Amino acid sequence: xxxxxxxxxxxxxxxxxxxxxxxxxxxxxxxxxxxxxxxxxxxxxxxxxxxxxxxxxxxxxxxxxxxxxxxxxxxxxxxxxxxxxxxxxxxxxxxxxxxxxxxxxxxxxxxxxxxxxxxxxxxxxxxxxxxxxxxxxxxxxxxxxxxxxxxxxxxxxxxxxxxxxxxxxxxxxxxxxxxxxxxxxxxxxxxxxxxxxxxxxxxxxxxxxxxxxxxxxxxxxxxxxxxxxxxxxxxxxxxxxxxxxxxxxxxxxxxxxxxxxxxxxxxxxxxxxxxxxxxxxx
Length: 282
Known about the structure:
It contains seven helices and ten strands. It has helices at residues 2-5, 29-46, 71-77, 102-115, 179-188, 214-228, 246-281; strands at 9-13, 51-56, 80-83, 122-127, 129-134, 165-169, 190-192, 197-202, 207-211, 232-236. The strands form two sheets. A five-stranded parallel beta sheet has the order 1-2-3-4-10, covered by helices on one side. The chain has a five-stranded antiparallel beta sheet with strand order 6-5-9-8-7, covered by helices on one side. The N and C termini lie far apart (57 Å).
C-alpha cells in the first residue's frame, strides 16, 4: 500500500481500551510483549527511510504496552509518537473533566517521558470535535461544575454505551435534541484557569460540554508545546473541521510560529557556540 500510493510512511493506531469489560486487561497481557515485536516487523518491511509513527493513548490507565522496559524497542521502530491528548474524558469516567485540557495533556506527555520517550519524539494531539456528557440530575454541580458527578454512562457489566455521552465534529449537523444546549454552550462557554480547558455546564439539561476553541489551541503552545519542547502536533481529524476549518487554521498558524521560534533559537545557539569557539582560538 505504501509503495502503491507513494506515501511517506504509515501510522499505527493503539486503541483506548473500549472493550475492557468484555476483554479484561489480564487477558491482554501478552500484547505488552507482542506490540514492540509487531512494530519491529512492520519497520523491517517498510525499511529505514519511510516514516512510521503510532497514535498512542493519552490516559495512563490505557498505556499498558508502554513501559520503561518496552519503550526502547518501540522507540527504535518509530519516528515519533502521536499522543492522543483528547478523549481524556470518556464514558468510563464518573466525574466531569476536560476531554482535551491542558493539565491532563501535560500529564499524558509526562507519562511517556517518564517511560523513556523524549519530548522531541512526541506530537501533541488536537481534537477537531466537541464532546458532551450527562451529569447526575440528583446532584447540584455548582458554578464551575468541574469534578461533578456524571450520570451512569456505560453498563457496569458489559461496558455498553448507555447513550449518556457523545461527540460530533464541527462539520456535522448538531443533533436536534442537543441543539438548544449546544447554542448556550457556544454563547456562554468559559475557560477553566486551573485545569486549562474550555467548557460549559447546562444546568437546565444537565449537560457537560468540553471542547477546544481556537483560543484554547493558541493557549496550548506556550503551556505545553514550548514548555516541554514537543516535537510537533497533529489533529483528529482534518475533515471534521469543515466547512470553515477555523481550528485547522488556528493550529497551522501556531505551528508556523512555533517552528519559526525554534529555528531562531537554534540559529542563535549555533552562532553563540561559534563565537565561543572563535574566542577560544584567539
